[in-house]
Structure formats: C-alpha cells, structure tokens
Write a structure and sequence with these properties.
CATH class: Mainly Beta
Largest sheet: 10 strands, mixed
C-alpha cells in the first residue's frame, strides 16, 4: 500500500483544519540566526490508495479511503550576508529541519463492511542549506520581494522548501503576502512510500525590535 498526500492551493482552505506559523530572526552585522515553526492539521485528505485488484479476478474491489494529517515542522538556521545593495540583500545559510508527522487512515468496503482505522507517525531530522533575502521593489525600499529556498536530506528522505512574495515596510515592521511550498520525499526509501507536499498562501507581519 502506498500513500501520496498533497495539499495544494486548490484545496488549501477546504482541507485545512488548523494552521499556525511563527518565525523569528536575530542579526548582528552580516551574521544572522533564524527559527521557523509550522503546525498543520489537514482533515479528510484523498489518501491516494488505489483499489485492490483480486488475484485472477475481473475487476477491482472498490473502497473509500481518507487520510487525516498532523505535522509539526521546525527549521533552525544560521546565515551570512554575501551581497547587499541598499535594501536588497542575499544570505547563504545552513541549518536543520525537524518533522513530526502523524497520519490517520480510515478506509472500508462499500456499505460500511469491514471498516478499518490505521495510524502511523514519524520523526525526522534533516540537514539543510540554501539562500534567503529580499529584493527592493521601490527606490525608497518600502516595497520589497522576500525570497527563500532550501534543500536538505536525512537518513531516508529528501526535502526542499521555497517561498516568494511581496511586502510593504512600515515604521513598526513589515507586512508580507507570499506563496510557500514545503515538500518531503520518502518514495522508495523505506517509509511506506510517503510523499508529502504542502503549498499555500501566507499573510504575515514582522515586528522589529
């Protein structure tokens, strides 16, 4: 049995039960450290489980299946600014990402016959590296484009994350609207063939101290 779980922009709001995002950053000269935490709860995802074909039979046995998912994702990193021009800058960084994910699978034959429930969880640490920063979109630096890209790997998986958006800088801080994608690939690597991808919009405010 394999599962292929995706939450894309098209079904983001219909399947999202709860989400929480928190990010923090500290800078001194060209050096920086940052942390990013995501909690997601997605309900009644299409599990991607295919119908079972009977040996020697003429067709498949149909059944209904859905998957609920809870995920805690923590990213930690440290970076250095390698390019800066006005309000624009580019950081390179290295760090780690922790994933705790719990899947609950509900399935059964038509008419409620032989209902089954199954659940599984995993914990993963990955080493990551990438780039992050901002491009100024106006001469005064108030309008800007944040961007982020990382690639990582662990013992039995690969992962990547990307973000791009637009923001406006006020005196007290920044407001940004961005599109974010986070992917994990365990396919063929001994973790039940799980392939998870989370994509959606993020509206955020940054407070400066």
């Amino acid at each position: 049995m394999s599962a292929d779980l995706h939450s894309t922009i098209g079904d983001y709001f219909s399947k999202l039960s709860f989400a929480f995002f928190l990010a923090t950053e500290a800078r001194k000269s060209e050096w920086s450290v940052f942390a990013d935490y995501i909690y997601l709860k997605l309900a009644e995802q299409d599990s991607g489980v295919k119908p079972v074909f009977r040996p020697g039979g003429t067709g498949a046995i149909p059944f209904d299946a859905s998957m609920d998912l809870k995920a805690d994702i923590l990213t930690l990193g440290g970076g250095y600014t390698v390019w800066r021009q006005g309000a624009s800058y580019l950081d390179v960084f290295v760090g780690t990402r922790y994933l705790h994910i719990t899947n609950s699978l509900d399935f059964g034959l038509p008419g409620g016959v032989r209902q089954r429930d199954a659940s599984a969880s995993m914990n993963k640490w990955d080493v990551i590296g990438g780039i992050r920063g901002q491009f100024a979109l106006s001469e005064d630096g108030r309008w800007f484009m944040p961007y982020y890209l990382d690639l990582g790997a662990g013992s039995n998986n690969t992962t990547w994350q990307a973000l791009v958006g637009a923001g406006y800088r006020y005196g007290w801080g920044d407001v940004t609207l961005s599109v974010r994608n986070l992917s994990y690939d365990f396919t063929g690597r001994g973790d039940s063939g799980l392939d998870a991808r989370f994509t959606g919009f993020a509206l955020g405010a940054t407070f400066k101290f």
